[in-house]
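debug: dumping io for the single-chain case to check the tokenizer round-trip. Nothing else runs in this session.
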Amino acid sequence: MAKYLLVSFKTCPWVQRAAIVLREKNVEFEFRHIDRDNRPDWFRAISPHNKVPVLSIDGKVSLFESNAIAEYLDETIAPRLHPDDPVLRAINRAWTDYLPTFSEMVTGSAYAESEAEHKEDVAKIPLAFARLEGALEKQNAGPFFNGVTYSLVDAAYAPFLQRYFFLDRIKPLGVIGHYPRVKAWADVLLKRPSTHSFPEAELEPLYRQNVKRRKSWLSQFVADAAVAAE
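debug: decoded output
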């Protein structure tokens, strides 16, 4: 069996996405966390964009970009998380392609430099959720994006829905409750063991400390805590 090494920053949602796929496929892998501000030479040698995630396979091949990693794992390791139907598969891929836009709209407020910018970023969240609400209405009756079967779409969105709740607990956003399908989906995903690279009681303080470390406008609402920043 191949040996998998997944390289990460501790709070990176894109790495979390790759880890979720590995766990959904019951694949053993090594999780190696590196310092965001002191990236080692061996990492720079295997990461063309100097970003995480990187998935090293048998120490011979290194894959990068979370979407490419997820697709590779789905093509090579059972069970298949993409739908068999080509139309449904294309729809699923379209929604994973939307993920960078969704993540920026839903979590971008964490890094706003002023109150005005923060308000502008928060104002984008309803549109992102409304688009997903419509997609969920067309796709299924729950609990997952495609109905009863877990998919790569679920794995992709889980880390960012989780971070919405982290931000909501720093300074209330009060948005997701207006989108019952998105809320129900998020609740199911956050209860699923594969979502969690760390216990939530550990990850959330790390995330909050990372927000504080960046000195964004939101950082003033994060209480000081003796938690290592990452």
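debug: round-trip ok. The radius of gyration is 18 Å.
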